[in-house]
Structure formats: C-alpha cells, structure tokens
Amino acid sequence: MREESFVKRVGLPRIIIFFFIVGLFIVGSFIGVDLKRSFIDVLTRFGMNAILVLSMIPMIQAGCGLNFGLPVGLIGGMLGAVLSLELRLTGIGGVTFALGLGMLFGAIFGWVYGLILNRVKGDEMIIATYVGFSFIALMNIFWVVLPFRNPESVMGFNGEGLRTTISLKAYWEKAFSRILGIELDTASELGDKLLIPVGMFIVFAIFAYLVYLFFKSKKGTTMTAVGSNENYARAAGAHINKTRMLAVILSCALGAAGMVIYEQSYGFVQMYNAPQFFAFPSVAAILLGGASIKKANIKNVLIGTLLFQGILTMTPTVINTAIKVDISEVLRLIISNGLILFALTRKEGGK
C-alpha cells in the first residue's frame, strides 16, 4: 500500500523518466561521456529555464490554460536587454536594469495580451499560440527600424537594425550566475572550467518564493478560485476578467524575467525569431512535473524542469557519443514535442 501510494503521488511517468536519466548517466560512464560536465550542464539548464517554467503557474491557476503565448513576455525581456546594452550597462547593475525594465515591458505587453484572451474564453491556448507568433513577426519590424546605436548591437553594414545574435561578453554575461558560483577544473585539454551557477539558483528561489507568497495572498486565492470554479468565484464577488488579466500580466512579467536570466547565462541576446519556440519546452516541463491545464504549483516546476532538462541534455549527449553523429537538434525536437503530446493526453498532469 505504501509503494502504491508513492507511485500514485509521484506519478509513474516521472519515476520512469527519472530512472531513464539515471540509466543514461550509467551508460555514458562506459562510452566516454564527461559525466561531471553533463551533470553541471543539467543544473545550468535548470537555472536557465526554471523561471520560464515558473511563468506558467499564474495563467494555469486562473483557468487561462497553458501559456503558449509566452513569446509576448519574452520579447519584453529582449527589449529590456537591448536597452541595457544601448546604455552600455555592465555587471550586476546592467543585468538588474535589464531584468526590471524587461518585466515592466512584459507586464505592458501582457495587459494587451490579456485583453485578447478575455475575449476568447475557452480557446485561450489556441489563440495564444497565434498571438505569440504574430507578436514576434511584428517586433521583427521594430528590431530593424528602432534607432539603436551601440556598434556591438547593430548590423555592421550601415549601422541600422539589430544583429541576429548580440554578445554579452563585455556587458553582463553570467553576472548572476557567478554570484557565489563554484568553479571546477575539468580534464579538458583546453583548460576551461565548469561553473556551478549558484547565483542563478538564488534568483530563481527568490522568484519562486514571491510566487508562493502571492498565491497565499487574497488576490492569489481569488485567482485560484477563478480557475477552479468561475461561477463560484463570481458568486463570491470575484471580478473574473480582472483576475484573469492579472494572471496574464504576471505570467508575461515572469516570462520577461526568465528571458533575461536565460540570456545572461547563455551569453548572448538572440533576436528576431529566436523566442518562437520557447513556450513549448516550458509547457512540456511543467506538464512533466505533474501539472494539469487547470492546476500547477512550484513543486511541478522544480520536478518538471529537472526531469525535462535532464532528458533533453543527456539523451543527445549519450546517443551522439555512441554513434559519432550529431543528431542533437532532431532529438530535442522529438523529445520536447513528444513530452507535450504525452502530458496533454493525461487527465491529471501525466499520472
């Protein structure tokens, strides 16, 4: 009975995936995979993506479904980042400025996005996908015409329009990641060092705790009530549209923050169509963690992100090493979309 309750509580799919990842590490040790590097890579990817996955919670709890329109918030983070670069800000100050300004833009864009979703109740996830793709296309025009002047950001031919990829090396690359970061030597001939990004984990912990506190507040409780039973919440005096709007704004602001954290860890700001498919791994991760389209919590974010990034990192690494052919991108697409398809067919978060 105790074993059955554990399997039911954790979920059989998550147990299988966990042991599959452990198996990949074991197999990797026999075929020459650098296990230390792979393990730290999993941790780093967790830190890079955790806030993006966390941004799914407000919309799920408010009954708006999975936020497939996450690029709306991501573009806010991208805008905050390029404006920080335009002002030549560096270090902790530069990334903090990008984070704050990005969340502000994410909230503004989320307000417009929320107006749209309140008009299409019941079809939010379908419409959100098109809203996200359309907003990316619209911003592609603005990235070309906005008057940016930083030589490292603009295209080299005539100094107009942003580059496709902008380096953060001279500005705030790994600014958060290096806070209390632990460097480890590797066996590589290049003499490079591995970084355990403790600071990035601290930033995620702060955001996760703030989300936890919000859902313990009156507004957070109201949001959960609206998502659970809209008619009951209305009878209790909740303003449905305003609550849904707040959820969308929070989700987009968190998405913007997640984008800045991702960028500082990655070391580059990717422009134009880069955020087009960011929503799908975040959706897959939170569903894999045990969330459903109506209920999610921080535990789902932690478990889902670790499992998803673990399988997404180790599977291509082990297979590429075994067959000596790079098929990592194909595998990532198969794994990401396969996990979304599987999770969405489960009635209660994949159990």
User: What is the gyration radius calculated from CA atoms?
Assistant: 21 Å
Helix percentage range: 55-70%
Task: State the assembly state of the protein chains.
Answer: single chain
Look at the structure and give the mean pLDDT.
Answer: 83
Largest sheet: 2 strands, antiparallel
Could you tell me how far the N terminus lies from the C terminus, measured between alpha carbons in angstroms? Answer: 17 Å
* Shape call: globular
Q: How many E strands?
A: 4
Approximate strand percentage: under 5%
Order of helices and strands: HHHHHHHEEEHHHHEHHH
User: How large is the count of helical segments?
Assistant: 14
Strand order of the largest sheet: 1-4
Low confidence ranges:
347-351
Structural class: mainly alpha
How would you characterize the overall build of this protein?
By secondary structure, this protein is mainly α. It has helices at about 1-10, 10-30, 35-55, 55-60, 70-85, 90-115, 125-145, 200-215, 220-230, 230-235, 240-265, 280-290, 300-325, 330-345; strands spanning about 165, 180-185, 195, 270. The strands form two sheets. It has a two-stranded antiparallel ribbon with strand order 1-4. It has a two-stranded antiparallel sheet with strand order 2-3. It is globular and about 60 Å long. Mean pLDDT is about 85; it is low at about 345-350. One of its GO terms (molecular function) is transmembrane transporter activity. This is ABC transporter permease. Keywords: Cell membrane, Membrane, Transmembrane, Transmembrane helix.
